[in-house]
Amino acid sequence: MVRVFGCLLLAGMLWHCAREDKLLVGDWQAVSVTENGDSLRLNPAEIGFTFQEDNRYAFRSTLRYAEAGRWRYDHGFLFATDTTHPDLPERIVAIDRLTIDSLILRMRADSAERRVVLLRNTDDSAE
User: Fold this and answer.
1) Residue 120 class from Cβ within 10 Å (0-12 exposed, 13-18 middle, 19+ buried)?
2) Mind listing the pLDDT tens digit for each residue in 94-109?
3) What's the pTM value of the predicted model, to 2 decimals?
4) 83 Cβ contact list (under 8 Å, min separation 6)
């Protein structure tokens, strides 16, 4: 009985991780960017991600900044490697919330904590 429960628990954990990973796939649009709890003076509509099933991503931000590369998800963290600037290290961002329609990212910017709230584009769906 203990072995069966252990196997079921392990299978459930693996399924849960795979499911969260799949939830990232799609187009995401920022609606809010805060630093230490205060809104930043920028247009969040300029910020967005596209995550593809083949673990490729594209990111756009303010001041016409863009990058693209490979991503992976592991235990509540998003790891991204920008292949357009190979000299940059892998970035690690905490995922505070991930649902079918919302994504909240948390990261450090120098000594400040920055949060980005994104919504899935409405013409997109995670299947």
Assistant:
1) buried
2) 999 999 999 999 999 7
3) 0.79
4) 68, 69, 70
